[in-house]
Amino acid sequence: MSRVPMPFYAGDVSALARTLRRKLQDAEAAPGHVELLNLLVKSVGYRNFQHFKAEFEGCRAVEPPEMAAAEVNAKRVKRVVRLFDGRGLLTRWPKKHSERMLCLWVMWSRIAPRRDYNEREIGELLEQHHLFADPALLRRELADHRMVERTSDGSRYRRMETPPPAEAVEVFRRLRA
């Protein structure tokens, strides 16, 4: 059976090394294959390797590249675009999960790539792009959906470089127009 490569990202290699060193020192014997996989993924915030694998497979199941262009729901895109005012500010947080995800992609697109933000900076950035005064909600949602990476203590945030789904790209296009 062929294996599907799963990209592994650690925002802070130093923290990863410290965590692994501490766990390996506490171990009575060298860890086995599965134990080592668990140590690696736990050091970046997953519960265990199965959790990491499920997140990866969930992301793949949501948006297969060959189906991306065919799966744009024009009605949903139109509803989401109406959630933004003329200046591109999100006016309210939608109730439907699918619409929330598209709104999160818009917020994701407004975060500079390859830049670290502290909690105050990311909060201020998000505050500039919505009108319902809850940057903490947006920050948590972005982190929960792995659109931004957050350190375990919540002090640093960085946008995860993932291709957005086709519907999100269509929302971007319509908001720019």
What does this molecule look like?
50% of the residues lie in helices and 6% in strands. The chain has 177 residues and is mainly alpha-helical. It folds into two domains: 50 residues, no CATH class; 108 residues, no CATH class. It has a three-stranded antiparallel sheet with strand order 1-3-2. α4 crosses α5, α5 packs across α8 and α6 crosses α7. It is elongated, with a radius of gyration of 19 Å. The protein starts with 12 loop residues before the first helix and ends with a helix.
Name the descriptors:
single chain, 177 residues, mainly alpha, 2 domains, three-stranded antiparallel β-sheet, 8 helices, 3 strands, 50% helix, 6% strand, elongated
Chain-averaged pLDDT: 86
Helix content class? 40-55%
Flag low-confidence runs.
61-70
Order of helices and strands: HHHHHEHHEEH
Percentage of β-strand residues: 5-15%
Distance between the termini: 47 Å
- Whole-number count of domains: 2
Radius of gyration: 19 Å
